Amino acid sequence: MRRDDRRDLGLLLLRLGAGGVLVAHGTQKLFGWFGGHGIEGTGQFMESVGYAPGKASATAAGLAETGGGTLLALGLATPAAGAAAAGAMAGAAAVHTPNGFFNQAGGYEHAATLGLTAASLAVTGPGRLSLDHLLGHAVNRGWMIPAAFAATAAGTAVVVGARARRLRKAKEGEQDPLFDEEFME
To answer: Is the peptide bond between 146 and the residue preceding it cis, with omega within 30 degrees of 0?
Structure first.
């Protein structure tokens, strides 16, 4: 097997794996598949972690994950697909950041890995075993990479920033205890 063939096969496997995981997560949010909670339950969760309105946030995250994952797996519109998925994972990572890095403690490890994989595929391209290649890269042009990342970064910054402001405002007026209860006993 030639080196180019190995590269294309590797990109196909990476696209199918990452895309499949993203689709599974997105359909949990949108349809309640694979043990998910659908739009209603996910919307309630999104509200509880500061993303409002919850249903709209659940829909946006679900569409970015399902749509981005599907397009990545197919190797179609790869810059937009990878950027959308990476943006969704940045939003997820923001929720998990207070728990540290590792997934076992509820950290952002999983979201970061999926986001970086999606972003890397957007930059690298889908390879020859893709719909982008089959269609002559009509929706996979070089200029689309910075455009997709700029649009996604702007949208993600607005959404994650609004969440951070809501969380700060909710904590206003709360006061930490002066002494630990253990100390007082």
So the answer is: no
